[in-house]
Amino acid sequence: MADTLKNVIAQSLECPVCLNTFTDPKILSCSHTYCKACLDNLLGCNGNDQMLRCPVCRAETQVPNQEVSKLPANLALKSLIEDMKNQYQFCSNCKSEDRPEAVVYCQDCGRYFCITCHKTHSQWPVFISHEVLAMSEIVSGKVSVRRYRKCRKHPKEDEECFCSDCRRFACFRCVVMEHTNEGHRVIEAAVYESSHVKSIEDLKSKADKKRSCFQKYVDFIDEQKDRVSNVQKQCTDDINKAYEDSVRQLTKEKEILIGEVNGMTEGVEKELDEMKKSAQEHITYLTTIADVVTNKTKIPLDMDALAAHDTLCQDLQEALKQEDPDYKQSIQSSKKGKSVSFKRNVGMDELGLGKIVNAVAKNIALPTKDSMNDMVGTPDGRMAVGCGTGGVEIFCADGQHQQTVLKDAKIVGLGFLSDDRYVVLNRSNNITLYTPEYTKLNVMFETLSHDEGELSSLAVDDDDQIYVISYSVAEKIQVFSPAGGKAIREIPCDGYIPVQFTNYNDYLITESFDTIRLIDKQGVVKYQLTKSGVYLTAAVSQGNTILIATVKDDESLVSIDEYTNELKHVQNLVTDYKVETNERGLWYTLQQYRSGEIAFCTPDRLYIFY
Known about the structure:
Elements: H1 2-12, E1 25-27, E2 33-35, H2 36-44, E3 51-53, E4 60-62, H3 75-86, E5 104-106, E6 111-113, H4 115-123, E7 132-134, H5 135-140, E8 161-163, E9 168-170, H6 172-178, E10 186-188, H7 189-245, H8 251-293, H9 303-320, H10 327-338, E11 340-344, E12 354-358, E13 361-365, E14 372-377, E15 383-387, E16 392-395, E17 401-405, E18 413-416, E19 422-425, E20 431-434, H11 450-453, E21 456-460, E22 466-470, E23 476-480, E24 489-492, E25 500-504, E26 507-511, E27 515-520, E28 525-530, E29 535-540, E30 546-552, E31 557-563, E32 569-578, E33 589-592, E34 598-601, E35 605-609
Antiparallel strand pairs: 1-2, 3-4, 5-6, 5-7, 8-9, 8-10, 11-12, 13-35, 14-15, 15-16, 16-17, 18-19, 19-20, 21-22, 22-23, 23-24, 25-26, 26-27, 27-28, 29-30, 30-31, 31-32, 33-34, 34-35
């Protein structure tokens, strides 16, 4: 009877969470007791929350300043544990009243033995394979005793059954007396234990997979941070190199520029750090609670322990329902950092390092959908968009639509002479001149008809010569004087069909979908740049370099880069900026405002990059 009482007392000294003897027991407001370490783990799963939910009854307890040590200790339980540790365990086999002290415990027999009984026990062949534990190791806590379950109502009976409805173990007699009502599902205790262990293993496996999923997400975020950091480093290196080539008086400007880069990238890194922190907290939560509930060497015995483990298993099930990481969110954040670059001053007289460029654009819808045919800078520094449906739309550098002129002109090509007169090419390949006040001039040009030249494009050089490309059929460029009449000369386009072109010093920049060519005024190709599978459009920058926009039409992404007059890459200005799709496709134009903003136009919209 004494051994049974001891077992009952020992079982009552077990924490319902870790299933080990209480260590530094703390009482919650609901009167349930747990180890301090177990409560620390449970509180840690809740992040910054100061409320701790009891795993047994689910009541909440306020934890001051998130310090479990400040909760009241269960002094009576603590004292009882110390008393139990200090008591000798006597031999279970000896029958005399003055029983000797036990030196070992047999896990398989469930009995304590003194030295004499241990020798006898070890000599029997049937007992040789039994697991025997030294009392010194049990007392020191190095090993745990695997006790048999004995019924509290019938101490001589083992609890060989488990009632799934009552969530408790019972002996056969208790089953007959208390668990035969309708609805009670009674199974063998061993079957329940096997099922319980399997369900815990399944939870552990799922927790490991979920944890691995979030760890991959954390690793991905680290990669994104590295890329943003590399952009920041590249920008800083470019700034330092430009600074070394300049004068020492630019120290202050250098620090300002680096500060702008840091300001643009640190916010992105902070966003990525927050995402990483959230994912790591979920990993910690899954690890902690999974480790608590997947202690396969311990099976909950009483109702409190079962309730605690049921609650924790439910918590783990809820945690497993959380959606997998959203990679799009971190990619979108990192794009803001990766789009930062440094634009060095090239070919400018003013003393300065350059400026930080970030792919931030103003998106303006054109007044008429699918209407843009050409775009060119105005003499006063604004941007003019020529529309095939009629009219020229004028936009200032901040994106404001200021006016519509030449509403009746169906424009295919557009340009300006040095005296601010408008040069308009219409769908019939006719050139018309207009005064700055939009009055049509009576000047005739003998261009190819539409049947002879099909669709055309137009450009004006610094000497007011007017260039008309008649492609698809004629494959040549006609050059006209602003006085009108016949073409003063022609430039052959041998082996290629130009679609658009731009005047550049003593050369022309021609565009043929995926190829940019720099040709002289006799048509000889000097330099060429080809990018297969994309659309290229070019413009002359304010620094007299060449800007080229690369359009991935199937993805609606545009990148803008700066090149030398030999079409050698200088730097990237805009990377994979998302533009809205349009019905026409494969028709885009590029220009730069006099104030430095870059204008990129689709048939439907104008994008101004600052």
